[in-house]
Design goal:
The protein has 254 residues and is α+β, with helices and mostly antiparallel strands. The protein contains 2 helices and 13 strands; from the N terminus they run αβββββββββββββα. 28% of the residues lie in helices and 40% in strands. The strands form 2 sheets. Strands 1, 2, 3, 10, 11, 12 and 13 form a 7-stranded mixed β-sheet that branches. Strands 4, 5, 6, 7, 8 and 9 form a 6-stranded antiparallel β-sheet that branches. It is found in: Cell membrane; Cytolytic granule membrane; Late endosome membrane; Lysosome membrane.
């Protein structure tokens, strides 16, 4: 009896130790903090392109003389349906002068500049009209056709009832500041460092420039600030002289 009892005792001790280890592992698993889910990262929006380079575009008439000249940087803002993203996207594209071919035609009251870029995947047409009675011209029509990657179908937009870039016959229109010319709901055109003259050119030289309102405002702001500073200096100087005069009068009274 004594020998049997001594053989069962080690077995009971081993069972209790095994049970303790199992309970400890289960409690440890229960108390362990839940694993944090990996944070979801979203790709940042694409950065806007840099300012476009300034292109030099000239249209000549039948006798080889210039009838339209334009210096400008152009940027296209186009909303289109994308097959790759399955949604409507806005793409901002700079027209690169070294990859753009220019052509066009001129009549007595109309001048057209045609720009073909990216191996003719981008075709931009600018039409200027002249009012012979008032001797004023303006940008009256813009047309864009494009076949860019990710487009569900070729893009086309046109408007022939515009009234931008107004100038006088024989003079050029200039605007150094960025301008946004709304063409359609899905297309607008940004211009930079613009100087254009579609009528009344003498040789290959621009006429006297008529500056846009944006440029005039930029010139007016420094003048206003300078005048305000000059007025402030004058007020301080007058106050100083008055104070100095009063102090001298006080000394004489004493």
């Amino acid at each position: 009896m004594t020998q049997q009892h001594s053989r069962k005792q080690p077995l009971s001790v081993a069972f209790i130790a095994l049970l303790a280890v199992t309970l400890h592992q289960s409690f440890a698993a229960t108390d362990a903090p839940p694993t944090a889910a990996a944070p979801q990262t979203t790709s940042p929006p694409p950065a806007p392109p840099a300012l476009p380079e300034r292109g030099n575009y000239t249209v000549t008439n039948g006798n080889g003389t210039a009838c339209l000249m334009a210096l400008m940087g152009l940027q296209l803002n186009v909303s289109f349906s994308s097959a790759a993203f399955n949604k409507t996207v806005l793409d901002v594209v700079n027209l690169q002068p070294n990859m753009t071919k220019s052509s066009g035609s001129c009549d007595s009251d109309s001048a057209t500049l045609l720009l073909k870029a990216d191996e003719e995947r981008t075709n931009l047409t600018l039409i200027f009209s002249l009012n012979a009675t008032s001797s004023k011209y303006h940008l009256s029509g813009v047309t864009l056709s494009a076949a860019w990657p990710h487009m569900s179908e070729p893009f086309s937009a046109s408007n022939s009832s515009l009234d931008y870039l107004r100038g006088t016959l024989g003079r050029s229109y200039m605007c150094r500041e960025e301008q946004t010319l709304a063409v359609t709901v899905n297309f607008s055109l940004n211009t930079f460092q613009l100087q254009v003259q579609p009528f009344g050119l003498t040789g290959y030289q621009f006429g006297a420039a008529e500056e846009c309102q944006l440029d005039e405002d930029d010139m007016l702001i420094p003048i206003i600030v300078g005048a305000a500073l000059a007025g402030l200096v004058l007020v301080v100087l007058v106050a100083y002289l008055i104070g100095r005069k009063r102090s001298h009068a006080g000394y004489q009274t004493i």
